[in-house]
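Q&A log
Question type: sequence-to-structure
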Amino acid sequence: MPKIELLKGDITKLQVDAIVNAANSSLMGGGGVDGAIHRAAGPELLEECKKIIARIGSCPPGNAVITGAGKLECKYVIHSVGPIWRGGFYNESQLLRQAYLNSLKLAMDYQIKTIAFPNISTGAYGFPKELASDIAISAVEEFLKENPEIEKVIFVCFDEENYQIYKKKLSNV
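Response status: OK
Response body:
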């Protein structure tokens, strides 16, 4: 089975085939991971995102799109839109799961072998970190069982709290 790794640090510095951006529906950048990726990638990334939005209107929660990576070390950025937490009454868990799965499906379509995920929806979108990690880990593990072409998935935690949550849950990996 492909390898799952855990890192604490800056996802924009990784040398992988693709990094996943915890994007908003407009794909225009924002705070947190999204803003950091847009700043590090440079204006080319925003221009590609504008073209996608002109074509599709918006990228709803649970969906993902792919662009080049601008000035980043990776080849691609997969922009994955997670849900805003609204108490768990609006299908948030399923939408978060779809955000991870749709990112991985794009990785397969583009023959991506190594991919790094941030902690989607756990920042400004307020998704409970424990629940989000369970969803992320189970979605990735299940996908990798059926798709061994992806060689490595890295969960990249920027904050200590998420890192410790993932470390505890991935200790058997």
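Response note: DSSP finds five helices and six strands in the chain.
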